[in-house]
Amino acid sequence: MEKQIVLSDEQLVKDFIAGNNNSIDKLIERHQAKILSYILMCVKQQELAQDIFQESFIRVVRTLKRGRYADNGKFSSWVMRIAHNLIIDHYRKQKNQSVISNDNYEYDLFNSSQFSDRSIEDQMVKDQVLSDVGMLVKLLPDNQREVVEMRHYRDLSFKEIAEETNVSINTALGRMRYALMNLRRLAEERNISLTLS
């Protein structure tokens, strides 16, 4: 019975560089379970893990063919580092893209009024709400009305409001709080809806 010789990773790398393409297949087969399970543990998606695994070995092959591999007896660690870097790249891209997938939701995210043009009815409702709010603001006590107008119509900060009205920031905030409470009460008393939907 003939004894089968098990070649080291380094010998398989040398054989691949010398032109024996079967050597890379042996290396992939030898390290697939360990590297793939590490990638899967990080990304939690089988298909994505397979893609990153394949991309890792594409990079391995390119590097070996260019003669850029430094033989230091740590082939599996080197491949693991490549895979790890690809995982990091994947998460960076995801963070930058912030892609929304409809597959993760029970309803159609993109069939929403916020992604569609406003209809004439929507615009009429919005105009009516703005008109009602304007009318209710006029009913507020002077100091509350002044704060609401400065904040929401002139876009001033509470610091700027405080300076312009010669009161403390806390007083300006308090007036805004009371104004909002009064607006809600006035709207309820007059049975006015202030929502756009």
Question: What's a quick, concise take on this entry?
Answer:
The chain has 197 residues and is mainly α.
What is the H/E string? HHHHHHHH
Structural class label: mainly alpha
Task: List low-confidence stretches.
Answer: none
Q: How many alpha or pi helices?
A: 8
Keywords:
single chain; 197 residues; mainly alpha; Rna Polymerase Sigma Factor, Chain: A; Arc Repressor Mutant, subunit A; 2 domains; 8 helices; 68% helix; 0% strand; rod-shaped
Which helices and strands appear, and what pairs or packs with what?
Blueprint: H1 9-17, H2 22-43, H3 46-65, H4 75-97, H5 120-138, H6 142-153, H7 158-165, H8 169-189
Q: Any overview of this molecule?
A:
The protein has 197 residues and is mostly helical. The protein contains eight helices and no strands. It has helices at 9-17, 22-43, 46-65, 75-97, 120-138, 142-153, 158-165, 169-189. It is rod-shaped. It starts with 8 loop residues before the first helix and ends in an 8-residue tail after the last helix. The mean pLDDT is 82.
